[in-house]
Amino acid sequence: MIESFDAYLFDLDGVITPTVLLHRRAWRETFDRVFAAVGAEPYRESDYFDSLDGRPRFEGVAALLRARGIELPEGVEDAEGAEATDADDLGTIRGIGTAKNRIFAEMLERDGIDPYPGTVALIDRLAAAGKPLAVVSSSRNAEQVLRAARLRGRFAAVVDGVVADVEGLPGKPAPDTFLRAVELLGAAPERAVVFEDAASGVEAGRRGGFGLVVGVDRGAGRAALETAGAHLIVEDLGELD
User: Fold this and answer.
1) Model pLDDT, residue 55
2) pTM of the predicted model as reported, rounded to 2 decimal places
3) What residues does each domain of the chain span?
4) What is the pLDDT of residue 78?
5) Which of 11, 86, 197, 217 is catalytic?
6) 7: helix, coil or strand?
7) DSSP class per residue in 115-142
């Protein structure tokens, strides 16, 4: 039974909420402009899964540009080292990432977000059993998304892109953000479960020595999640008993 573990760590986008759909739309809109400006092949949906899915935003931008053989400067950080001051400057990595985040935030505010019912049902089961829960996300918008989904109060800890920057934690596929979250929940990795829909996140869970890594196939593909090291693969968390 899934309730036999001590703690549970959920990725956000694609596991708790379908924000991945908003992210994919925002990435497409952004990179359509970027690639058109440099005369590159148009953005493909496979670009998201190959280079962007599960990575911190600026790392994803750099990865996709490298994959296309495009070299751009990093861009200017703000005083906190987070966002680009050259917002919407599509000639820099940070400018591209900042433009995408602006588009995503506008979509979220305009359209809102509803969590996956199967995930909510599992969260309710675990909460009823007194299990501590955390969110581990590369997104810098995790708090905003959880509030929009009316779920922030269900989680004892949120380790997202903001926390990772402040604490100097490398992003997925490194296991550090998951290890930090399980520490905050007061549990050992081998007694905790990771729920992930991205191959990079599944790899992070396996590298962290977690007792169970559940891959949620929302489009990455069963083969990719298996290769990354998922112990179990489902299409929806409502399938778990």
Assistant:
1) 85
2) 0.77
3) 2-18+113-239, 21-111
4) 54
5) 11
6) strand
7) --HHHHHHHHHHHHTT--EEEE-S-S-H
Phi/psi class of residue 212: alpha, beta or left (left: φ > 0; alpha: ψ in -120 to 50)? Answer: beta
Residue 122 contacts residue 9 (beta carbons within 8 Å): no
Active-site residue, 11 included: yes
CATH architecture under which domain 21-111 falls: Orthogonal Bundle (1.10)
Q: 41 — alpha (psi -120 to 50), left (phi > 0) or beta?
A: beta
Torsion over CA: 99, 100, 101, 106 (sign):
positive
From the list 6, 13, 53, 89, the catalytic residue is 13
Of residues 79 and 119, more confidently modeled? 119
Domain 2-18+113-239: give its CATH code: 3.40.50.1000
The verdict on whether 13 is a catalytic residue reads: yes
Query: How would you classify residue 87: left for phi > 0, otherwise alpha for psi between -120 and 50, otherwise beta?
Result: beta
